[in-house]
């Protein structure tokens, strides 16, 4: 009869293991049946089979920890924990000993003894050496873990050393570097949100009046589409704030030109006598053949050839697509300041600050309540 387990074969009253495997470890039950006085009886006996290592393959203990790769760094006064972990192969009737030695002397300061069975009858033993408060002298001692069985004795030294002190200049350097980084981040955030105010403040206190001895009569020549909504914006809003609040002298052709003159000649003359050309952009502005386009092209030519005037673009209303080549090129290289309706009416708002940055620095005196005078400089062009 073919037996189900070929490596474990019954042989009469014996069970023969042809090859021993760790999987065969467990409980085995022998069953016997007999008949006596007309009655059937059964007897059973259970035995536990434990698979252990071969004595021929047993070895001396193996120390897993401590090793040279594990370094214990402490300061004087700290508590020291040194772990010794050792594995033993199975060896019948052999002692399994683990102990710590300090400078070659057996130490009794050992707690947390732990013994754990491992495969093939082996054992893992852990012992921890504890020193409640180490001194500088203790950190220079030799801490060694020993392990022994009938196959031999082994040992491993724990690497214990004093933790190097943190150098004072390192801490100061780290603090200084951290403070510098924090300051840079803070200044970056402040500049991101308040760069207009910073530029205006600097130029109001340290800027040089560029109107002195430059031979110019007007601060700003305003170019806009006539007989449109933009004309009301120029005459009522723009002129009121720039002339009355900030003291700039504006040149508005329809207001400042003399009757009977030649429009082209007077336009070129006004532009040459102005420090800035302020262009109010709108769909009406780009219509061909208008005086506004003449002013714009004359200003660009003057800025490119002589550099005596700077062109400032203010978008009063969006222009979807312009057929004027010069305007497309100007919008690509010049800053466009956008008028946002009611949001831009406040004289101290962002629109006016952006515009002031582009205007010339000019000394002016403004009367304040209580009879005080404030002498300041209007912002210079960037």
Give a quick set of tags describing it:
single chain, alpha/beta, 5-stranded parallel sheet, 7 helices, disordered C terminus, TIR_dom
Explained architecture:
By secondary structure, this protein is α/β, with parallel strands linked by helices. The chain is 27% helix and 33% strand. It is built from 7 helices and 20 strands. The strands form 6 sheets. Strands 6-13-12-8-9 form a 5-stranded mixed beta sheet, with no helix packed on it. Strands 15-14-16-17-18 form a 5-stranded parallel beta sheet, with helices on both faces. A 4-stranded antiparallel beta sheet has the order 5-7-11-10, with no helix packed on it. Helix 1 packs across helix 7 and helix 4 crosses helix 5. The longest helix has 39 residues, at 168-206. The radius of gyration is 49 Å and the shape is elongated.
Uncertain spans: 365-382
Q: Quick one: biggest sheet?
A: 5 strands, mixed
Estimate the strand proportion: 25-35%
Helix content estimate? 25-40%
Oligomeric form: single chain
Could you tell me the mean pLDDT?
84
Shape: elongated
Which class best fits the helix and strand makeup? alpha/beta
What's the count of strands? 20
How far do the termini sit from each other?
106 Å
Count of DSSP-assigned helices: 7
Numbering strands along the chain, what is their spatial order in the largest sheet?
6-13-12-8-9
- Rg from alpha-carbon coordinates: 49 Å
Element-by-element helix/strand order: EEEEEEEEEEEEEHEHEHHEHEHEHEE
